[in-house]
Amino acid sequence: MKNTRMLTLTSGALLASVAAICLSSCGGATYSDQVLVSDDPTSLTKIVFFECLGHANEGNLGKIVSAFNEKYAGKYEVELSKVAGTYDALHDAVNTKLTAGEVPALCMGYPDSFSVYMGKEIDDSNIYRLDNFIDDPTFGFTAEEKKDFVPEYLAEGQNYQFEGTWSLPMYKSTEIMYYNECYFAGSNQQNLAKFAANTEFAALNKAVTDKGANPTDESLKALKDWVKSHSGYAYELPTTWEDMIALAKQMVADMKTENLENIEFYPVGYDSDANLLISQFAQRGIPFTVNDEASKADPTKHFVFDNDEAKAFVNTLVQNVKDKLLITKGVLGGSKYTNTYFTNLKSAMSIGSTGGSSYNVSSNFKVGLAPVPYAAGKKAQYIMQGPSICFFNNSNDYVHKGSWLFYKMLAETTNNTKLSLENSYDPIKNSCYETTEYKNFVAKHDSELKYDIPFHTQDLRDNYMTSPVFVGSSTARVEIGNVLQYICNSNFSTDEAFAKAMNSCRAAA
Amino acid sequence: MESKNNWKAWLYLAPVIVLMAVFTLYPIVNTVVVSFLKDYNQINGSSKGFTFYNYQQILSPGGLFYEDVWLTALPNTLILTLITVPTSIILALFIAIGLNSIPFLKKIFQTVFFMPYVTNAIAIGMVFSVIFDTQTGIFNAIFGTYGFPWIFPVPGGATVAYGSALFSICFYIVWHSLPYKILIFLGGLQNVDQQYYDAAKIDAASRAKTIMKITVPLLSPQILYVMITSFIGAFKEYNSVIGLFGTNGGAFDKNTGPSSMKTMVFFIYDQIAKGKVQYASAAAVILFVIIMLFTAIQFKVSKKRVHY
Amino acid sequence: MENNYPNLQLVIKNDRLSAEKKNKLSLLGRILSLVLTYAFLAFMALLMIFPFYWMIITSLKEGMEINQMNPTFWPQIIRWENYSEAFSRLNFGTLLRNTLVVGIFSTIGTLFTTIFAAFAFARLEFKGRDFMFSILLATMMIPGEMMVTTNYVSVSLLGMIGKDNLMGAYAAMILPFMVSVFYIYLLRQNFKQIPNELYLAAKVDGKTDWQFLWKVMVPLAMPTLITIFILKLMGAWNSYVWPNLIATGNQDFWLITNGLRGTFSAAENINDYGVQMAATVIVTVPLLLLFIFFRKYIMRGVSRAGIKG
Fold it and tell me: Chains A and B: how many Cβ contacts under 8 Å?
């Protein structure tokens, strides 16, 4: 008796839940193209913007939102919906909200996340294509305005699994090489050993390394000239990847000459394994991932990094690691950063994101900035980072219009410049770089690292690269970043490591 | 009498049943259903029919996740559980009995032993890096094993052996789980009537004998509780892996054991993050079956030894 | 028969030791075991307290020192600004209010549901008791992450999500986790230890089950109940993932841990690390005080006067 009662209860619950699952499959309307309405709403339309900005960036965004709400009072109102945490936390929150049928108007994030909102069938996409809006005669961008965008930034929004523009940039950052100017000028272990008894050297060295000394270009040059004239160890900044590796070899050899080979020192640190491999692959023409007809039919064909050139390049990197020339976050175990080694004088060069500049500042020496060394003989290609914005399908057309108008305000030259510079990000339009705000900011470049960064990145605009985006592209990025770990820390062979990475990617496609 | 108890009992259980039905049983049933769906899209709830595909990918040797689960996640989960649970229970028992028997400084010790419970997880992670760091770690300094990699490999040099990583994470897990257990045991010890101890003294029983023959049996309901709940909790271990080895679960020499410390729940969360809820559900169901079996065995074995 | 041995002493021998020596030895033994116990406890205590100590010194360091390779055991420069900055940036009033409301109500809810359920499982005989209990235990065997999305959808369908729906947000944060099988099981064990004689005696006195529960069982199980109270309250204090989801869209709904993560971005600013740690310390102190205050209620022995074996 009790058993049958239990049985009916459980099967009833089962049926109810199956029904509920089917019911919950109602989200917002899903169209991949929308059309801008020409009029404005008569009642207040709320525009919900999901963001995860940190404390430092919230100020300017808040000002833009207030200005927007004032301008369109009575018609549109932007509401900021902040998720505490990283972009991943934001992505999870948006995913869950979409499942519950709560659709925001726009959200910020990375293209990898947006491709998940798109899904695999264009008719099921939660976000819509923006070309109609961009080309709209009244409210879109004119041909001039379109050209004003930094081309790579726009192109990033067009590299998805489906044709068209699916996202627009908010602001961008990139990678840069931080280097120890004092080390290069001659204040290094080798010289300290060689000129141990020399008072002249000691004085010049003190001038650049004393805490709070704030070494100037003159004092650094003085040191370097002295060291060079006394056959000491001074180094020149490398411009190509091969030069950088050769320089690293030289540094290690010099340390050996001075009997310092037991000191822990790795000339080059690269914090993001994934960025290292993706950008170097791109420059050398090594395939990584693709969006093409074959991959549309079979998603596992998106991943094409399992090739001989890739393996050969990775092998050279592994050798570099074994020779103690190079360290990466992965090689360090995955939870330590190479910039720690840099600020603690155990590295001379550290390549990392411009967003994390405060972690590369040291009171022990002067930090210099330089473009990331590129593959010799090839065109430099730098990784683009930083959030973009995507727009969600809503049943209310005015939400689409309001979102679009809001984006236009975010992208407006002065607004975007102020928004970006607040935390050393790069603004998205060429005209931004000509504004007085930008010029004033960059003019202070010798005083603090955060002003120095836009000063150096403004010249990198022509060389940004994008990777194809599709469902599973974030896994591709994670896995290619794991390859060095697999080989160096887990002793997998190169073939095994690539096979392992490909396997994970295929499972995530 | 029995029927009167029946509806009365269900009345007492009503709030629990209602809340659980909505917030626990329904999601669990949902998980089971989803584990049998092909290409489940969580956002719009669509799928391509019922299938065993998800389980195949995990259980059969040719599957996508065979290596991840059978060679890494499952062994890690089992090893971690079998090492940390007995160790922490025995340690907690000793500490609780010790705490209960000392004449002064009781309050201070009791408070101190509760500290890990209120310490922020990030700080804990930092401390363990400090203790187990390869070059500058305290552990290596104390035991003279300079440069021995417990968590972090030496770049271009020594790799971390699975055994070393296992030691550090077991240390972490045991450390973290002690306060709760000590609290439960201490509470249970308060229930032991002093007259039992007095009787034992009259009989001139040694300290060890008192513990084994009186304290432990009288504490057996709490010990059983801690055993069952600790095993269940240990099978779901996840936070310690992230805290110690980062979001990738660590990379150890594959010749010394599994190449990472990823556990079953790590695999599950990873699949959810990749949007593949169907694989996560299948793995959750498999884990559920394993934990169920384990718990059933524990109940059977302990039936004769628990005294209320 | 005369007393020819004036210095004869009566010696009780046991194991070839005199009574006096045996006394001394057992005293020595007790002192030794006491010393060993203290040493053992002190060593373990040091291990337990070390991370807390680290938390405090990190909260006083500046970013660069935290990031140093050779960790310092005392801040080189004590940065008190970490605390003032934490205070000014963190919206303590709202966060505290939310956390207390959610914490206290969910704890009260848990206590009641736990008492009722544990009573049913421990004391009442009914059909399907063991089966129900196994189902309850079984629910502990599924990882929580699997239930997040489904529960969010349920909570949304029940109308608890809305930008200005504070009551709804509270309900959403309290209800799904009010039932805790961990605590039901714990209390059931405790209830089962209460001797049957008491129950029979109460029945003889004409007391109903309800009265027995509240007048006898609950007072006897008070240490366990207080333990549950503290642990559940701490759970609300530390909960993060679920409130983060519920409170998206309105920072006024945030609980303390959401505030900690959302207000400081250690990833972008190296000094925020220390500030975040300072905020964490500020948030942790009440928990510790709570425990210290309630500790004696947990540790107080239960008198069993009136029960003779």
Answer: 130
Instruction: Find the range with the poorest average confidence among A91-100, C1-10, C37-46.
Output: C1-10
CA atoms within 13 A on the CB side of B93: 19
Q: B64 to chain A: which residues are within 8 Å by CB?
A: 503, 506-507
3-state secondary structure chain C: CCCCCCCCCCCCEECCEEHHHHHHHHHHHHHHHHHHHHHHHHHHHHHHHHHHHHHHHHHCCCHHHHCCCCCCCCCCCCCCHHHHHHHHHCCHHHHHHHHHHHHHHHHHHHHHHHHHHHHHHHHCCCCCHHHHHHHHHHHCCCCCHHHHHHHHHHHHHCCCCCCCCHHHHHHHHHHHHCCCHHHHHHHHHHHHHCCHHHHHHHHHCCCCHHHHHHHHHHHHCHHHHHHHHHHHHHHHHHCCHHHHHHCCCCHHHCCHHHHHHHHCCCCCCCCHHHHHHHHHHHHHHHHHHHHHHHHHHHHCCCCCCCCCC
Give the 3-state secondary structure of residue A21.
helix
Query: How do residues B121-161 score in pLDDT, each as one tens digit?
Result: 778 888 888 889 888 888 888 888 888 999 999 988 889 99
Find residue A240's DSSP bridge partners: A374
* Signed CA dihedral, A7, A9, A12, A17: sign only: negative
Out of C40, C69, C154, closest to residue B23 by CB: C154
pTM, to two decimals: 0.90
Closest residue to B251, CB basis, from A322, A333, A507: A333
- Indicate yes or no: CB of B64 within 8 angstroms of CB of A506: yes
Of A371-380, A441-450, C17-26, the range with the highest mean pLDDT is A371-380
Q: Is A50 on the interface with C (CB under 8 A)?
A: yes
Instruction: Give a yes or no: residue B20 inside a domain.
Output: no
CATH of the domain at B234: 1.10.3720.10
Tens digit of each residue's pLDDT (9 = 90 or more) over A302-337: 999 999 999 999 999 999 999 999 999 999 988 889
Q: Which residue of C has its CA nearest to B193?
A: C304
Assigned CATH for C91-263: 1.10.3720.10
Return the sign of the alpha-carbon dihedral for residues A83, A86, A87, A90: negative
- pLDDT winner (highest mean) among A22-26, A318-322, A381-385: A318-322
Looking at residue A4, what is its pLDDT? 45
Among A22, A323, A490, beta carbon nearest to B254: A490
The ipTM estimated for the assembled molecules is 0.90
How many distinct structural domains can be found in chain B?
A: 1
B233 to chain A nearest CA, in Å?
24
Domains of chain A: 29-172+386-460 (3.40.190.10), 175-272+307-384 (3.40.190)
Residue B178 lies in a domain: yes
Q: Is A119 on the interface with B (CB under 8 A)?
A: yes
Percent of residues, chain A, with pLDDT higher than 90:
54
Q: Per the domain annotation, does B17 fall within a domain?
A: no
Section B52-60 average pLDDT: 92
CB contact under 8 A, B259 and A27: no
Tell which of C146, C185, C229 to mutate to test the B interface (max B CBs under 10 Å).
C146
In a domain, B255, yes or no: yes
CB A480 within 8 A of CB A288: yes
Residues from chain B that touch C189, judged by Cβ atoms under 8 A, are: 221-222, 224-225, 308
Q: Across the interface, do B245 and A331 touch by the CB < 8 Å criterion? A: no
Q: Which domain range does residue B271 map to?
A: 65-305
Considering only CB atoms, which chain C residues are within 8 Å of A97? 152, 248
Counting one residue from A and one from C, how many pairs have CB atoms under 8 Å apart? 92
**CA gap A264, B136 in Å, rounded:** 12
Q: What is the pLDDT of residue A19?
A: 44
**What is the mean predicted confidence (pLDDT) over A6-21?**
48
